[in-house]
Here is the input.
Amino acid sequence: MKAISALKPAHFLWRMEGDVAVIRLNRPERKNPLTFAAYAELRDTFRALHDADDVKAVVLLPNGGNFCSGGDVHDIIGPLVAMDMKGLLAFTRMTGDLVKAMLGCGKPIIAAVDGVAVGAGAIIAMAADLRLATPEAKTAFLFTRAGLAGCDMGACAMLPRVIGQGRAADLLYTGRTMTAQEGERWGFFNRLVAAEALEDEAMGLARALAAGPTFAHGITKTQLNQEWSMSLEQAIESEAQAQAICMQTKDFARAYQAFVAKQRPAFEGN
Here is the structure.
């Protein structure tokens, strides 16, 4: 296992609150757009989180009242117009690899959305495990507005599973903005929180998860992702095996012992 808490990224802000990692994109004057380098550094960071034993949960926060405005028009979209197919495919695979890394990092990720979360910003929020938002949050999968398909970074696979096929089709074909109220009603956002309380709410949720049985949380995340492509019979068998693995952990024994003693269990993630 490796430590990652001392990370010093060049293209986003990083801080540790205990064993919770906090990430903010850091171009608030442009509503936090992504660059080629930011994509790659985020991908590499989430890949490294898989083996990091000093991080138990991740929170993605807005900066300057906005979450992320997607790919930078000048730094990304302009150069893409001039690329050949080999370069374009390398880019689209890299952006998809960020989502794969988020899904595969083994840690629960909480996205706290304020202001705009559009394009790749909407995808990053979608790829989180839990999503909080302010009533002012505006989420849009803008790809058709740029002459592209809505099927970007896993959107056509993941968004229908979150909000339903018809609602996903609406957003992905039109590129229109989903209001925070729609997002909560449709299940995209777990709940809405006042802007002044958003960070505290997200951090409180992250701390609660970090204090839980984190090995078992990693199993839960794995099963949530893997069972998309399983039959019901396969899923039930896979969960039987996963739960048997968790029953061998010390956290399972700690929970039992705490229950007998009428105490709160102190989980250690093993």
Notes: The longest strand covers residues 12-17.
